[in-house]
């Protein structure tokens, strides 16, 4: 993300939907010395975790669709795996573009399509078989923008000219199948609150066979999870 946004020492950089601050911390390391890293998120619990990582970073509570910053406030804006959850995606992109200075760079990452991640495809298929289409569709929400044409249309709607979309290879890893299921259970954007304890117990049992092809010799689970990356620059 830092490379895509051209982040370098001395810059002022905003991380939108920073969550617990993984990308924000990476930005802070890249802009030193003399730069400023700002992380913004609408979830106070995630920001609380982020603040414990780096007290010297400016952590802000706010929504992507209405950024609490003046026009042309940042040399670069990044957003990692947040755009698909925004209520008004075009408005969020328009706001990120608004706060960029002349010559600034934007980099926004989203999950690629579900069918490009074989492990998550198998998990979604299992969810539909066990609990129906509604639950499977909820799990698939993070992959809703996994189409370059859709992303380019959003950029056009937001007034972002000359945006490019690139696919980046990546992998997701969990300590075990149990860890994978527990992680998805805790995710408020997908399965959180949809299944009761008995249903999750059933999901865990059934996952042992459905996800076995992705288990390595040490018991860890690993499979491909590519991302799509929007990049654009102001002039």
Notes on the protein architecture:
By secondary structure, the protein is an alpha/beta fold. It has a domain at 1-111: Rossmann fold (3-Layer(aba) Sandwich), CATH 3.40.50.150. The chain is built from eight helices and nine strands. The strands form two sheets. It has a seven-stranded mixed beta sheet, sandwiched between helices. Strands 7-8 form a two-stranded antiparallel sheet. Helix 4 packs antiparallel against helix 5 and helix 4 (118-131) crosses helix 8 (197-210). The protein is globular and about 55 Å long. The model has no long low-confidence stretch (mean pLDDT 95).
- The pLDDT mean sits at 95
Taking strands numbered 1, 2, ... along the chain, how are they ordered across the largest sheet?
3-2-1-4-5-9-6
What would you give as the CATH superfamily of the domain at 1-111?
A: Vaccinia Virus protein VP39
Helix and strand element order = EHEHEEHEHHHEEHHEE
Low-confidence stretches: none
How would you describe the shape?
A: globular
Structural class: alpha/beta
Q: Alpha-carbon distance between the termini?
A: 20 Å
Radius of gyration: 19 Å
Q: Give the biggest sheet.
A: 7 strands, mixed
Tally of helical segments: 8
Short description:
The protein is an alpha/beta fold and 235 residues long. The protein has 8 helices and 9 strands. The strands form 2 sheets. A 7-stranded mixed β-sheet has the order 3-2-1-4-5-9-6, with helices on both faces. A two-stranded antiparallel sheet has the order 7-8.
């Amino acid at each position: 993300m830092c490379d895509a946004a051209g982040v370098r020492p001395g810059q002022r950089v905003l991380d939108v939907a920073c969550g617990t601050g993984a990308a924000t911390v990476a930005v802070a390391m890249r802009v030193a010395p003399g730069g400023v890293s700002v992380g913004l998120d609408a979830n106070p619990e995630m920001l609380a975790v982020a603040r414990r990582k780096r007290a010297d970073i400016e952590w802000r509570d706010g929504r992507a669709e209405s950024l609490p910053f003046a026009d042309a406030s940042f040399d670069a804006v990044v957003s990692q795996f947040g755009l698909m959850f925004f209520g008004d995606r075009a408005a969020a992109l328009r706001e990120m573009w608004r706060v960029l200075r002349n010559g600034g760079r934007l980099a926004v990452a989203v999950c690629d399509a579900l069918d490009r991640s074989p492990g998550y495809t198998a998990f979604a298929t299992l969810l539909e078989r066990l609990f129906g289409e509604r639950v499977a569709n909820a799990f698939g929400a993070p992959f809703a923008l996994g189409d370059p044409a859709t992303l380019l249309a959003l950029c056009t709607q937001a007034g972002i000219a000359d945006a490019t979309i690139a696919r980046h290879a990546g992998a997701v890893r969990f300590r075990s199948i149990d860890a994978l299921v527990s992680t998805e259970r805790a995710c408020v954007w997908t399965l959180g609150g949809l299944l009761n304890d008995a249903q999750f117990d059933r999901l865990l049992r059934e996952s042992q066979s459905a996800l076995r092809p992705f288990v390595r010799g040490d018991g860890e689970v690993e499979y491909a999870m590519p991302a799509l990356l929007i990049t654009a620059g102001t002039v």
